[in-house]
Amino acid sequence: MSSDTKGESPLRSEHDIVLARQQVRRLTQELKFSLVDQTKMVTAASELARNALVYGRGGAMHWEVLQVESRTGLKLLFADQGPGIPNMELAMTDGWTSGKGLGMGLTGAKRLVNEFEIDSKVNGGTRVTITRWK
Amino acid sequence: MEKIPILRMGEFLLVTIQIDMHDQLALKLQDDLSNAIQKNASRGVLIDISSLEMVDSFIGRMVADISGMGKILGAETILVGMQPAVAITLVELGLSLPGVATALNVERGMALLRRKIDADGADVVRY
Q1: Which residue of B has its CA nearest to A110?
Q2: Residue B1: inside a domain, yes or no?
Q3: ipTM computed for the complex
């Protein structure tokens, strides 16, 4: 396993979404997550990375390996400096989208992980943190 | 320029997605496929995703769009080879891909396509 326990990947272009997915796949493999758990975390990362790029006009994915007693987990923070989410309740509704998507990104990603936190300020960007434990 | 190849097999088209697609590439495939259906008067499309380790809402939507668009152009679409971990994740994500026919592998997908086409007896109308 690599000695790095945290790092960051930029989210500036569509290709960065692919790189973020690959980074999360590599990390979850190193942490020996089950294949289903790897896939869930990679898929959640893909949704949130795209949100940060499309709605947040770009940002970064910060990752951190967590070790709490005997538990191992992976925490990902997607931070953008976009317009923020004015109506959080609406944004967290299945099928609602402010853009051209399916409206499954945020709510779907939330269902794929163990912990989910979102913090958004109008004109102050959005930060979404997800954690999945092994 | 990156491109996902579309193989013509008689009246069917076969697409095997083997790389982690970025969004533009997925959209390009959608375009290329609709053109290929029209040009070859294809009756069916098989999309093999057995190498895909992840399907997110973007790719899910692309598949649903191809299926809907194909239908309008007279072609049935079958999605084949989805890995179990991908299927579990897709359902939990909230995408059940309504209206998209699926099969376990290319062979079964091909058999399903033949049955669907024979059943609708569209030959009479078509020619």
Answers
A1: B93
A2: no
A3: 0.89
Nearest to A36 by CA among B60, B90, B99, B12: B90
Low-confidence ranges of chain A (pLDDT < 70): 1-3, 98-102
pLDDT of the residue at A1: 47
Q: How many CB atoms sit inside 10 A of residue B52's CB?
A: 19
Which strand (E) or helix (H) includes residue B111? Answer: helix B106-120
Provide the token pair at A88.
């959080």
Segments forming the whole domain that contains residue B12: 6-126
* Chain B residue numbers touching A11 (CB-CB < 8 A): none
**Three-class SS state of B20:** coil
For chain B, how many structural domains are there in total? 1
User: Nearest Cβ partner of B93 from A14, A21, A111?
Assistant: A111
pLDDT at B127: 47
Spell out the domains of chain A, with CATH numbers in brackets.
7-133 (3.30.565.10)
Enumerate the β-bridge partners of residue B8: B13
pTM: 0.91
- In the block, residue with structure tokens 């958004």: A120
Would B114 be classed as within a structural domain? yes
User: What pLDDT was estimated at residue A90?
Assistant: 85
Residue B35, domain CATH: 3.30.750.24
Asked if residues A46 and B54 have their Cβ atoms less than 8 Å apart, the reply is: yes
